[in-house]
Specification:
homodimer, 511 residues, alpha+beta, FAD/NAD(P)-binding domain, Flavocytochrome C3, Chain A, domain 1, 34% helix, disordered N terminus, FAD-oxidoreductase_2 (chains A, B), oxidoreductase (chains A, B), FMN binding (chains A, B)
């Protein structure tokens, strides 16, 4: 701010979340350049340091670009670093090892089914085709993976690879290190993107606030927070928007679904707001699927936020066990359906009296999944351990006889590899023959929590942001949760890592 | 254009559909005023001459304002003038006459159920509370109504009043006449809104093209059509956006649902594009529910567009008869469910082989609904008349025995006032005791067609357009289908007239 007068500021072409006033402009480009005094100059500026931003950064920097990554929070990684570390890779090496047959077509059809067929097919095809390259990028950066597949809901077959540490941080941290090793790169924390700088209709830079202190107590941090010092940064080759989703934007999420008020818990980090998305809409980016907001069905009501309950439910109970309504002792859904189907079914059970479903499995799971999926939630106390099914039923006040009958019936289904009640996929590749019989038994209360915003700006297969006339906005790319279309109405579990990394990488290749 | 140089144009603050370039601005308001040379000056400028625009116009003009209504097409009324003329009015006089008990609460709950509970409740409450005023406005303007109620899908009780001529034109034409009788008013046809003119962040006028020739052959008329002469019009008190929905905007509708390509028929007039909506988003209007696009389940595949089949299905066959799958001879849905439920059910029946459902009723309907609902589609040949049910089954190739059994069962349901198969409301107020027994029988093939876009800009209960910070954009109002939130995920039939007229009226009261 120091070296730019108020008059100069008003003369610039700034359009963004915090300013409706369309301040200044340029009869032509040269005049415009005269008006703007940039504090710094980079080849590529990336907004956000999650999966998409980092993959873009590494890829663009490897091509010799001078790359700056902006991160408004005090730590890198946004939602990615607290993500569960599941990475859907169709046709992956672990599938070969475990004898699972997969194909791009099967993967795409699974996504279309969950997405209610409103997915933008060209984007879906792109993440399928590039999955191997994307997986390799993480290996090159140093990510280590667990040696067993997961089978997440909505996927026809097990196709999810997991980071060794069971978290997205297993991808984020090596990628940060790889990025920072490349010359002429920087990740600048506590630096908030505020507005795009345009030259006619081309994105040529950003206005930011440095030394920004995100304030979780504000209803609308993007607009109320005035901390930090304003700086103008030139991006010679363009800007990549990778600012993530808006599950923690109270105002914008309620615009799309008024039920999502302050009491709706979310798995997202506090900084998951809509500021970047809104700035993009204001410079003409086409909006896609903004009103599709997803609940993750594998959370636990007995801890706040993402927590560790997800580890148990998405990796153990839903695949190797069952979910029952404690009032009836009966199952009520396919535990491996897509997220929307499961969340809708769970909300019906929960009703107005917080009748949270009970998710359970037995100790055989320890041989087929990361034991931390049991150990971590046991340690926090949200997962309970029982010596008998009767004890479990008593603890949660479930009608005992009906519950035992439910387990018996489910075990028959596992044996026959066919769920006659809800159509859960029970092939041997999925169940490994695990039924519910071997103590100790593990159980946890379950609930859906706000997890992913499907909508965002429209991009093409080169990760260029398209305007409402279907034309790329020059100098403007986007990747990850801030984009819309890939997942249609509902994203399948573990497809976020694939989507974010792939389009981040593609943005880095093309900018 | 004549008296404004290119240089002047570039200096103005124009943001809109046709220009991503944010051309010029103002260090302060006075400079800005100096830059702009308006060709005309009005108190209020209204974009669109449908229900919302006209109600806004009449109301604003009655308050002494000089009001200009812009209409890009060669005729007034947009979709409103071809609308079916059904007007949901909770607690209306015809309900009293026919002994139907209704309440605001019942109406709101019906709308919330169809809207999947994502409706903006304050807007829904507003149209319920003001319904009587809105109905009276149409009576004052001279609309005549038919003397029997309709019962449309998703409403718990019959509450739909119908214009005497069975069309929205029965409201539009008297309202146009009433508007034009008021001094200092004008409806200017073939005049297309292009861009908003801003003074800092206040809407102070519009850029238009006069003598515009809408070109149905263009993929994207809003952006490709260069016909007409540019003019700048000042709106001293503000602009009311009433530009309608975007069911005929090939690009924008496919952004939200890629399946809605050129082969997807719609009931909408050719000019139903997204240009006005997009211009509003570009000046910071908050977007709501853009991806919810509705099919009307009462159309006919044997005629293009809205046609006259709707008259039969929405007023006769769905209420007094049944819809059967011609392959099975059986019913497959509650014919009075909401539009989304019915459309989804019908698409399943239609499948990939165009197995259109058959909608039918008997001649008793002529005593309980406008006979034109039968006569008009009979004349065009899309409705068929049969002396026996057997003949009907033969004509449509329906398995005879199963079909006769279906009719027999349905007649039992009517007698007992209870649909045991699909839960269709069969109280005497709805059926008037009409079953399917008295020849001649009438039948028509049915299909859903694209009908209404639920999404749009966010308004408050004063019809002010809100920006992304929840603040009204000064000088900017909106009403009707271009707004979002009132109907949530799916609008109930005959609520469009109520919504459009009410918020149009409110905009006219507040501007």
């Amino acid at each position: 701010m120091a070296n730019i007068s108020r008059r100069d500021m008003l003369k610039m072409s700034i359009v963004g979340a915090s300013s409706l006033a369309l301040s200044s402009v340029n009869a032509n480009a040269s005049e415009n350049e005269k008006d703007i005094k940039f504090d710094e100059e980079w080849d590529v500026v990336i907004i956000g340091s999650g999966f998409a931003g980092l993959a873009a950064g590494v890829t663009a920097a490897k091509r010799g670009n001078k790359v700056l990554v902006l991160e408004k929070m005090g730590r890198v990684g946004g939602n990615s670093v607290i993500n569960g570390g599941g990475f859907a890779v169709p046709n992956n090496p672990l599938q070969k090892k475990e004898g699972v047959k997969d194909s791009d077509e099967l993967f795409i059809n699974d996504c279309l089914k969950a997405g209610l067929n409103i997915n933008h097919l060209e984007l879906l095809q792109t993440i399928a085709e590039r999955a191997k390259d994307t997986f390799n990028l993480t290996l090159e950066c140093g990510t280590e993976y667990y040696d067993k597949l997961s089978h997440l809901g909505g996927h026809s077959v097990p196709r999810t690879i997991n980071t060794k540490n069971g978290s997205g941080s297993g991808i984020v941290h090596p990628m940060v290190a790889a990025f920072e090793k490349i010359p002429n790169t920087e990740i600048r924390k506590r630096t908030k993107f505020d507005d795009f700088i345009l030259e006619t209709n081309k994105v040529v830079g950003v206005k930011v606030k440095e030394n920004y202190k995100f304030d979780q107590k504000l209803i609308d941090d993007d607009n109320e927070n005035t901390s930090g010092e304003i700086k103008f940064i030139k991006a010679k080759k363009g800007v990549i928007l990778a600012s993530g989703g808006f599950c923690n934007d109270l105002f914008f999420r309620q615009l799309q679904d008024p039920r999502l008020g302050v009491n709706t818990d979310t798995t997202n980090h506090p900084g998951a707001t809509a500021g970047g998305l809104i700035s993009a809409l204001k410079i003409g980016a086409a909006p896609v699927h903004l009103s599709w907001i997803q609940f993750g069905p594998w959370a636990c009501p007995d801890e706040p936020g993402f927590g560790v309950g997800t580890k148990f439910n998405s990796g153990a109970s839903f695949r190797f066990g069952i979910s029952v309504n404690p009032k009836t002792g009966k199952r009520y859904m396919n535990e491996l359906a897509d997220r929307k189907i499961r969340s809708d079914a769970m909300f019906k059970v929960i009703g107005d009296d917080k009748n949270y479903p009970i998710n359970l499995c037995d100790s055989q799971v320890l041989q087929h999944t990361d034991p931390e999926r049991i150990n971590k939630p046991l340690k926090t106390g949200i997962l309970k351990q029982f010596n008998t099914l009767e004890e479990l039923a008593e603890f949660y006040n479930i009608p005992k006889a009906d519950f035992l009958e439910t387990v018996k019936k489910y075990n028959e289904f596992v044996k026959n590899q066919k769920d006659l009640d809800f159509g859960k996929p029970l092939s041997l590749a999925t169940t490994k023959g695990v039924n519910i019989s071997k103590p100790p038994f593990y159980a946890m209360r379950g609930t859906p929590k706000l997890h992913h915003t499907m909508g965002g700006v429209k991009i093409n297969t080169k990760a260029q942001v398209l305007d409402i006339n279907d034309n790329p906005i020059p100098g403007f790319y986007a990747a990850g949760e801030v984009t819309g279309g890939t997942h249609g109405a509902s994203r399948l579990g573990s497809c976020a890592i694939l989507d974010c990394l792939t389009f981040g990488m593609i943005a880095g290749e093309n900018i």
